[in-house]
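idk why but the lab printer keeps eating my pages so im just putting this in chat instead. protein + zinc ion:
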Amino acid sequence: MLRLAALAGALLLGGGAHAATLIHAGRVIDGVSDTVRTNQTVVVVDGKITSIESGFRAPAANDRVIDLAQGTLLPGLFDMHVHLTGEYSKHSEIDDYKLNEADVAIDSVVYADRTLLAGFTTVRDLGDEFRASIALRNAINAGKVPGPRIIAAGKAIASTGGHADPTNGWARKFPADPGPEDGVINGVDDARKAVRQRYKEGSDTIKITATGGVLSIAKNGLNPQMTEEEIRAVVTTARDYGFKVAAHAHGAEGIKRAVRGGVDSIEHGTFMDDEGMKLMKERGTFYVPTLSAGRWVYEQAQDPNFFPAIVRPKALQVGPQIQATFARAYKAGVKIMFGTDTGVGKHGDNAREFKLMVESGMPAMEAIRDATSVPAKFLDLEDKTGSIAVGKLGELVGVPGDPLKDISVMERVVFVMKDNTVYKAP
Ligand SMILES: [Zn+2]
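predcted complex ->
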């Protein structure tokens, strides 16, 4: 009876509506287990996985078939660190003075589309401009524009002059003393207000910049830029509103302050020392390495004119270090989630991170789990997505060949399905 009702519903949608989507997959990596199942049919009806069967089931009259017999089907991928409202370029410093809200908003729609087509069906946006990531999230959720599910931080929270103070480098003639409303704090009261302001604006999560960063117009890329008390005030306030807290941190001291202050994830973690790793293991803090961003800034810094003069030495210092730190942290048993910092680097290139993770000693299957079921659990989405199982949403991606033999196939996604829509088909 239920089945008939669903079928009638699908037919009522009229032209182009399919009763079921049958994905014929040569291999299925489900995002949880170590076992790869071969020659399977994964059936999606009304956006949900309704069965997983051995062999390639023949379609009924109104079914749609996706032929992935030569490839591998995976859960939709997660990138836990992106910035969909921008893409860094040689012109970024001057663009900061030229771009209006509408320019940023329209760019972000393009970047969201590229991200989805690269196989990323969920992203955590860790810092935007003009609250555009929140508007973008709402438009995607409403089905107005294609894109990944977005967990949006909105404006990142910094201290005065710190990484994510939006007025760094400005001449005195511009008004340049932003406060908690604009994501700049000094002291615990400001910290609380900044979190509450993000709640008011519709953020899903909180991002702080606990140390200097590479691309800001400021001298130091590593120094601690918040007190432990400020970080703790952010975290305790965030808990009142059900927010998790992500901390950008490059230097060892800032990393430890953030972990002791109670944050849920350390982003970049470049100069993490053994004590920092031990603290993270004790407290269960996740590490989001963003190897792609480290690699990208280091490569661009080879051109002496690419970055502003104050940025280049930081890119040369931080870039090459992250991958070695990731290798140590992984060996030490720190919990890891896949994240790229894309926006630094081109949107749509997110999957390059897999190769860098595997190069650094992580088995391919574990890198895939860190981009599927592990972040799904972190975001309390594991009932919906992050794995291939009956009852989960049909958020699925296909790659040619076998990523366990050649991880670079993750960069050549041929099939993307989300919200019962096939965005890319082989
Ligand atoms: Zn970032």
